[in-house]
Amino acid sequence: MSISVAILAAGAGTRMKSSLPKVLHKICGKEMLFYSIDEALKISDDIHIVLFHQHEKIKEAIQKSFGDSKITFHIQNHLSYPGTGGALMNGADQNPISTKYDKVLVLNGDMPLVKEKELLKLISPASAVSMSVLTLENPTGYGRVIIEDKKVTSIVEEKDAQEATKSICIVNAGVYVFERHILETYLPKLNNHNNQKEYYLTDIIGLCAKDNKEVMPVFVNEKDFMGVNSKSQLAYAESIMLQDLRNKAMDQGVIMHLPETIYLESEVVFEGECEIENGVCIKGKSKIINSHIKAHTVIENSCIKDSDIGPMAHIRPGCQISNTHIGNFVELKASILNGVKAGHLSYLGDCSIDEGSNIGAGVITCNYDGKKKHKTIIGKNVFVGSDTQLIAPINIASNVLIGSGTTMTKDAKEGDLITSRVKQENKAGGFYRFFGYSKESSQSND
Ligand code: UD1
Ligand code: CA
Fold this sequence. Notes:
Layout: E1 4-8, E2 26-27, E3 30-31, H1 32-43, E4 47-51, H2 55-66, E5 71-75, H3 84-87, E6 103-108, H4 116-120, E7 129-135, E8 144-148, E9 151-156, H5 163-166, E10 170-179, H6 180-186, H7 203-210, E11 215-219, H8 222-225, H9 231-251, E12 255-256, E13 263-264, E14 269-271, E15 275-276, E16 281-283, E17 287-289, E18 292-293, E19 298-300, E20 303-305, E21 308-309, E22 314-315, E23 320-322, E24 325-333, E25 336-338, E26 341-349, E27 351-353, E28 358-359, E29 364-366, E30 376-378, E31 383-384, E32 389-391, E33 394-396, E34 401-402, E35 407-408, E36 417-418, H10 430-435, H11 439-445
Bound molecules: uridine-diphosphate-N-acetylglucosamine and calcium ion (CA).
């Protein structure tokens, strides 16, 4: 489509009270600015991102995820021209930043819920300016929109509003489509005569209306257009996104118990028939295929196929698990398990375990020697007795039986039985000698 997109992300984000730039705060595992970039890239091949505060950090994060082919970065001349209007100015003067196309879609970088479909509704061939408006029960923090005869006549920022204006519940959602000539005409006319001493982009709207240029309001939903300025709005936006992610999964056939307690990140994928119990947390690029994830399990960046996991298991990044049963209090990290049972209380890190093997309670792969991480390889049909420590690097062939309580330091060959126990000694009467009384007196005390 022949439209350029400008995303404003140069603000200080003071209300977040954080050293992390506001637009890099994450919602469902992804930086909030990245959601708008994703949507912008669906609409345009000419994306402009305006930065100032911590611009190096933000630019680096964007380039790492998106490359920079279709994205042009601008550093706002924030000292001379602070404010959302200043953001669209070419660093040196009040002319607009140069864009490839004659129409420019402008959006704030703090609107993580915005979707391509909703943005397209604002692109009207008929008017020189259109803007998104929201009707809110609580309009606090937003610019209030004055509408007369179905046309916007001005926007009043909360910090400049009289009490009567503050009671208006129609607010500016922060997305606009401008014909380029409108920006060329009106950006140079902006001033900073307001309580924030900023150049407001929103003042262009009033200037247009005065010159009888129509500004078309497009009513949109809070669900798609809410802005994030504080940590509580961050949490609220995340709760809206989570609801969407869960509904999408359930529509696809996933069973969810108490869905409102399940946390998912935006890149999690479900395939086939899955069941997810309450309190489960699935993060990163995890893929869950035909599996049952039981209550309070945490899965990060891992693939689970035809398996049942938990309750209360912790699958850390880099695991590939198939045809496997993982029980409670089992922690896995960067491990490949195929056709395995690990029912209770184990740490399995940097290992691969093959079909038919059974991992007893309390088995630990000692993968870290204080300097380096090492691998544990376990073949097929290996029975690892409870409370065994596997000191990595170690290689255990198929068909091996390891007695419980073994500390394994050497590789095992096919067919081996391995034990490393200290011989048990039973000392008759030792109990009474230790506590200093006799069997007779202990019986009379009962
Ligand atoms: C802005 C609007 C307000 C609207 C609200 C919607 C203005 C003056 N006000 O207010 O009418 O209701 O969004 O969410 O536009 N930014 C820059 N450079 C700056 C200042 C801000 O690039 O100098 C960026 C910020 O990084 C942010 C966006 O612009 O992504 C909006 O700035 P913010 O300070 O959040 O504006 P609001 O007060 O929310
Ligand atoms: Ca905002």
